[in-house]
Amino acid sequence: MRLNPVQWFARNAGFSRPLFALLTMLFLSLPADAEEPWYKIEILVFAHSSPAIDEQTWGNAQIPRRADALELGNNGNGAYQRLPANNLVLTAEKNRLSEQADYRTLFHGAWYQPVSTSDGAKPVRIRGGKLMPNNAYELDGYVTLDLDEFLSIRPDLYYSFDAPNDAGRTLTANLKASRQVEIDEIHYIDHPLFGMLVVIQR
């Protein structure tokens, strides 16, 4: 049996069997979040400026309201707080996209958070872009990071845009995926209307 540090100390210190068992139970009863690793998540979401829009395919998504979602703060310290611009590593990619007429940035931000298994992972809500006539942001949705056997990111993002030839009507497209990610690698998740770059760091 592989021993954790508390168990190893108890056994090698000559503790009695009942005390050894008690220490084992105490270790197992520690809160799960005490062992959750922290990661830095950086996300860059961009829209295609002149996409081929098929209204029947892309325009009917409904944005869910998740009561368990966490909102990002802006003080730069602690979990779920947006980091200042000098902590971003996708700035060069953002600048290259900005130089091309076909793309617009909807969201670029980073934060630290503890990461749990998929059973306990909580989504983080992100919003960006301009306000639409219905008072919704162009970009709204959720990003969930979890760690089971592998580290995975699960975006569920919604991009709202004016219907072609009908500026008074808003259509919404959904990007929903599950992607295994590696530390310090830039990952691209695509959609015909918008896409995202993500990098995870320790």
TrEMBL record:
Q: Which Pfam families does this entry report, sorted A to Z?
A: CsiV
Q: Which domain of life is it from?
A: Bacteria
What this protein is called in its record is Peptidoglycan-binding protein, CsiV
**Source species:** Marinobacterium nitratireducens
Note the InterPro entries from the entry.
Answer: CsiV
